[in-house]
Prior knowledge:
The protein is elongated and about 65 Å long. The protein has helices at 8-28, 34-45, 54-67, 75-112. It is 75% helix and 0% strand. Helix 1 packs antiparallel against helix 2 and helix 1 crosses helix 3 (54-67). By secondary structure, the chain is mainly alpha-helical.
Amino acid sequence: TLAHSAACASVYHSKALEEWEVSGWWHYLGKSTVEDFEAAMRKRLGKEWDDVLLRELRRFYFTAKRDGVPPEYEEVRGRQLEWRLRMSSQAREQREERAVEAIDDHEERLERE
């Protein structure tokens, strides 16, 4: 998925640029909302979508809306996004492992009773 891709930030940014090119004017005029932009990006990214993208997406959106043009891709921001995606992925894996452990513990207790 995008969350595990090394190029996730540049892919996200290029898709955001594509969406802004299509719908940006409506946003700039106040005829569309950040929620509309988020929904369009979820659709554009499909299975590659990860909620951890929301922070960067909103930053992109409000910068573009304020300035009338989208922000340029910055390598530092890309590294920050990749780090956040990696951390989110690790946290998700830990939650899944803990859930499996909890289920196993519960089943063991039921067997003992």
